[in-house]
UniProtKB/TrEMBL annotation:
Pfam family membership, one: Polysacc_synt_3
Cytoplasm keyword on record: no
Protein's UniProt keywords contain Transmembrane: yes
Protein name as annotated: Lipopolysaccharide biosynthesis protein
PANTHER family documented for this protein: LIPOPOLYSACCHARIDE BIOSYNTHESIS PROTEIN WZXC (PTHR30250:SF10), PST FAMILY PREDICTED COLANIC ACID TRANSPORTER (PTHR30250)
Membrane topology type: Multi-pass membrane protein
Gene Ontology CC terms: plasma membrane
InterPro entries: Poly_Biosynth_Transport
Compartments, as annotated in UniProt: Cell membrane
The family this protein is said to belong to: Belongs to the polysaccharide synthase family.
Entries under CDD domains matching the protein: MATE_tuaB_like
Sequence intervals crossing the membrane: 12-33, 45-69, 81-101, 113-133, 145-166, 172-194, 288-307, 354-374, 380-401, 413-437, 443-466
Amino acid sequence: MATNLGDAAIRGLKWTTFATVITTLLQVLYTSIMARLLQPEDFGVVAMASFVLRFGGYFAQMGIGQALIQKKEISSHDIRVAFTSTFFLGILFSGLFYVLAPFSTLVFANPKIISVVRVMSISFFLSGLSSTSMNLLRKKMDFKLLSIIEVCSYLFGYLSVGIILAYYGFGYWSIVMAGLAQIISSTLISYSIVRHNLLFLFKWEYYKPLLNFGGKISFISLLEFLRVHLSTLVIGRLFSAAVLGIYTRAFELISLPIYYLTTNFSKVLLPVFSVIQDDKPKLKNAFLSSIAIVGYIIIPICIGISIASEQMVLILLGSKFEAAIIVTSILALGMPFRVFNNINGIVCEATATLNVKAIFQIFYISLLTILYFILKEYELVGIAMSFIVAELFMIIAYTIITKKLLQYTVSEILQAIAPGMLTGIIAGISIYTITIFLKNHSLPLLIILSAQIVTGALCVFLSLFLKVNKLIKNEIYKRLANSITDTNKSFKNKLLNKALQLMS
């Protein structure tokens, strides 16, 4: 069972990594093109409308999807309940936000968002239609199909509809329509693959188990939304839509590689952690391995982005977003904390430790609000610094609870983080050195950015040979051995023996 689960997890990570790389490249292309076709204000208007809608988004499905994944065994009744709930909740929230759209100006004093909120509210209904199929695929850990759906829907929605409309002068409506087109294509593809029962079910005894868990997840997800997007509210209230557009572009620029990697990794971790939730030693080992592997990739990337922020902003967004350079540099340094917090949060979800997670979210939102008030005179730089401080406090709080849940030691968690930290320092020094050298020779930005990427990638690869990275090498050797067929038993045994040497 453990081997099958591990193999399923690795297959899932292979496909989610594939989807991550492709989608990230597509979004880099999309962001670069749209930043030149649209104005910062256009992005700000859509960000405001999205903020308003996401309040409802966390209750439009009542956490039914996560409940399906977390539940060990699901029946045909569970599937019908899931579809019935998300279908009618989708209709309810689409209608509700259409009617209440004018009140969105009480949050942001920008009348343009009224019509945007009304059109975007259709997404509640569309997401309700696709939710059950998508979550059944996640439950089965069929990440190959999920990856294909993600890439195909993004291509249709953003790279086709979005760019075409932006080119013909539709402004912020091109972003809105791109998002809806992406959801429509995802809905059609997912149901064509997973044709679940469409009959409604209205018996309360089948709803209670899913809603008990899902309701708590919805509330926590709302708190997480506030945690992630509180900056949108603050900037939108205190500054202009153009300033908000600059901040959201800076944040998204960092999130291109980070968000997709961690989100897809989370899609694999939740079902895996849920299966072994009662076996604390296995859950502990899975958690520490996840921290080590993700940290080894994320920390060097974030340090590299921080150093290369000038080149990334000017090349991908253009000179009119020059104010985003310093914000991008600061936000990148805080992103590893958020990634580790997400993994800690998955442990809480998998073990149904939801009350503690809710308390942590409330603490974070309160702290972030106070920091925004204290640092508001520094404008966007103050917002970015508040992000780092709040995430640091959050990781301390999460470490306390996961240490108690999983019974790991301080030495074990430091050993898990050490590969990423050391590799990040080496990569950071190397990238900074090559950047200064090339800038002194007045080379083009594209050449400098290319050199920064190559330097960072080489540092990550070469760091594998350092002694401190034996945990990472151990995972690589084990996974290579597991992927080799019986016809290669000799080489497979060598890899497994090497892994055992590293563990000893």
